């Protein structure tokens, strides 16, 4: 019996790609998805290098998803329990995020989350169990500050991304696009 990911099941990235939606990958996304459903990717040397790639992607003329992983938050600060470094990295990211938000088009959607908790003040080096927030922003939002509540599963992000591009889903997750539009 084989456990885990099945090649016969398409991910949200595959579904977007198959529907002609560009999929750009920043950081280790290409490795995580073994290149499936990805049109172009950049490897990162650091969070700020990743944000440089985000800036590059935003200068490109594309309609699609730019999926970003900034691994320093996890590998350099969370697992190493470096609260000071994590705080400084968050402030540097926040500064760069302001530039991203200024560059966004009215129909762009920004979703920020993490794949797990990793409290840098907790003992040990394992992932931690706190809830992970989802932040959503679009210049065209009519209801900013809307609470999404506690989502049932991480695949709600994928369902929302597919819904945003009008691509049929794979049956996993529930879109929250209507709540943030």
From TrEMBL:
Signal peptide annotation: none
CC per GO annotation: cytosol
Positions of the Metalloenzyme domain: 42-168
SUPFAM superfamilies to which the protein is assigned, alphabetical: Alkaline phosphatase-like
InterPro entries from the UniProt entry: Alkaline_phosphatase_core_sf, DeoB, Metalloenzyme
UniProt KW Manganese keyword: yes
Residue ranges of the TM segments: none
Entry's Gene Ontology BP terms: metabolic compound salvage; nucleotide metabolic process
Keyword check for Thylakoid: no
Gene3D superfamilies listed in its UniProt record: Alkaline Phosphatase, subunit A
A Pfam family that the UniProt record links to this protein: Metalloenzyme
Family that this chain belongs to: Belongs to the phosphopentomutase family.
Record PANTHER family: PHOSPHOPENTOMUTASE (PTHR21110)
UniProt protein name: Phosphopentomutase
Source organism: Bifidobacterium moukalabense DSM 27321
